[in-house]
Amino acid sequence: MAERISDAEHAVMEVLWEEAPLTAQDVAERVDPERGWSTNTVKTLLGRLLAKSAIAHEEQGRRYLYRPLVARDDYVMGESRRLIDRLFGGRLTPLVAHLAERDELTAQDISEIEALLKDLKA
Amino acid sequence: MAERISDAEHAVMEVLWEEAPLTAQDVAERVDPERGWSTNTVKTLLGRLLAKSAIAHEEQGRRYLYRPLVARDDYVMGESRRLIDRLFGGRLTPLVAHLAERDELTAQDISEIEALLKDLKA
DNA sequence: CCCTATTGACTACGTCTGTAATCGGAGTAG
DNA sequence: CTACTCCGATTACAGACGTAGTCAATAGGG
After folding, report:
1. N or C: which terminus of chain A carries fewer CB neighbours within 10 A?
2. Is the pLDDT of residue B67 over 80?
3. How many CB pairs under 8 A join A and B?
4. Distances in whole angstroms, Cα of residue A94 to Cα of each of A98, A111, B51, B100
5. Would the pLDDT of A1 be above 60?
6. How many CA atoms lie within 13 A of A105 on its CB side?
7. Nucleotides of D strand lying within 7 Å of any protein CB atom
């Protein structure tokens, strides 16, 4: 089931997570223009996502409406875990430490996370 | 330079980050046995990493000694940023929040990170 | 009813990846 | 000198990916 969503496919998923159901046409129109994809490319990606059961489609007249089957949260969680496991021995602290060391954290980030953690303990 | 290191290649890099320089043979012996790679496979990966300048080799008699050119920290940072940008709009807080929501944080994690952040402000 | 525009399905194709066998040259044991 | 061995380099090959063209069916416009 966890058929591993590729990068290009992910771009399509983002569209459907944002709004669904949509027709292939709609999706093509909403994909990040950065990509510069042709409609056909988007259709192929939709087809592949269907094949891996990441999305589903229901007939609507002579076209299909696509909707995500995988929740964004689940995908995001999976990817995050994969990275943390692979690079930080499965622990979040080293990641935060790493970002901190490289000055990738703003004062605001720090406050936000502190507040968040405080809440967690409550 | 930033030739994007693949997953299999990454496994080889981990060995060299752990200890270097090493011969191809040494690397093959130290790669995670989980992978079950033949020596040839490791050699191919070393070749590809050379091609993308992620590692370098120096002649030592009849063989080569391989050493990393890319620092682990840089690699790790790059991958982390990529994930955070792609999935969390470039901000760390949502990632932490996400992990928290899914109960992926232990009490110890929380304390550690709090301590870390406290230090940062000092 | 016939032509054209639309839509999903199928096909294409070069690149990258994972995995490995093979080839050719250089020492090494006789 | 000769057969063998060790090593890096070259080649192989299937499956995933990014990207897109073509085909067949269908639904409207005349």
Report:
1. C
2. yes
3. 88
4. 6, 18, 31, 16
5. no
6. 21
7. 7-12, 16-22, 26-28
Cβ-based neighbours of A96, under 8 Å, separated by 6 or more? A105, A113, B92, B96, B113, B116, B117
Place of tokens 């792609």: B86
The whole-number Å distance from B62's CA to C25's C1' is 11
Q: Does residue A62 belong to the interface with chain B, where contact is any CB pair within 8 Å?
A: no
In the predicted structure, residue B1 carries a pLDDT above the cut 80: no
Which residue, counting CA atoms, is nearest to the C1' of nucleotide D27?
A62
Domains of chain B: 7-68 (1.10.10.10), 72-121 (1.10.4040)
Largest CA distance in chain A: 56
Distances B111 to A63, A92, A99, B62 between C-alpha atoms, Å: 53, 12, 17, 52
